[in-house]
Amino acid sequence: TSLLLMAGMVVTVGLCRRLTRRRLRFHPRLCTFLLEMFSTFQTCACTNELFLLGKVEPKPHTSLTLTYGFTVLHGLTLTGSTCNPCGTLQPVWGGGIPVKLGGLMIGAQFVAAVLARAFMHFIWSLRMAEPHLGALSQGCSNPMQTTETQAFCIELLFSVVFQLTVLRVENVHPKYRVHLIALLITMLVYAGGNLTGAIFNPALAFSLHPYCFYDNFMSYSLVYWIAPSLGKFFMCLRK
After folding, report:
1. Which domain holds residue 81?
2. Which of 41, 68, 34 has its CA nearest to residue 203?
3. HSE-up of 191 (CA within 13 Å, CB side)?
């Protein structure tokens, strides 16, 4: 049921993106906002569901396999979108896109993060699958299973490794590049998923753990917003 749900979201988002390109090609800013919002919605909604499936046996084989598979699927279906505020910072820093457009894209990503969480809460309330039982009563699931300093360093390091790899594989054929990036993300999740969740995406972190930000905003914003953004900043300086 969960896999069918995520497949349905991928198909629906694909149709919305195609319709947006056709109908709003003469309204570039609105088109960019909606494309980024739909893409980030797919990423956040599917990851929310994957977070529940990560507890399904056998662990961690099920979660890692699904992480790899859906990362490949996102890469193939969401071309042209970053779905990550940190990924949007690079073209802004390099002058590839205007600052206002970059801000618009980041705003779309956080709007999508909130919408994805609200949508998944509605789906979970229907209790269509066993993992949905009790999902609404979890509150802050506390992904940070280490000290704040160590969590900050882990998210910073993972962000640098991820962004460096993305730069290194820019010239690889897209058909192979998506698998390399998916393999890297799966490896990072395996290495640090039990400590911080290995998210390195501010919008995704807010969608996955909003209650944690409400309860301890400074701590979680430092680890899941500032650390990955700082990692991207280091990569921009390197270039």
Report:
1. 1-237
2. 41
3. 13
Type of residue numbered 123 = I
What span, in angstroms and rounded, lies between the C-alpha atoms of 110 and 96? 21
Residue 42 · residue 10 · CB < 8 Å: yes
Query: How many whole angstroms separate alpha carbon 158 and alpha carbon 99?
Result: 26
CA distance 238 to 23: 40
Written as one string, the DSSP assignment of 56-83 is SSSTTHHHHHHHHHHHHHHHHH-TT---
- Using DSSP, state whether 39 is helix, strand or coil: helix
Check residue 207 and report its DSSP letter. H
Four-residue CA torsion sign, 213, 36, 90, 27: negative
What is the number of other CB atoms lying within 10 angstroms of the CB of residue 28?
Answer: 10
**For residues 77 and 178, what is the distance between their CA atoms, to the nearest angstrom?**
11
**How many domains are contained in the chain?**
1
- For the segment 194-207, what is each residue's pLDDT rounded down to a tens digit? 899 889 999 999 99
CATH of the domain at 173: 1.20.1080.10
Report the half-sphere exposure of 146 (CA within 13 A, side-chain side).
15
Residue 209, SS3 per DSSP = coil
CB atoms within 10 A of CB 169: 17
Q: For residue range 99-131, what is the model confidence (pLDDT) as tens digits?
A: 999 999 999 999 999 999 999 999 988 888 777
Nearest alpha-carbon partner for 202 in 210, 214, 191: 210
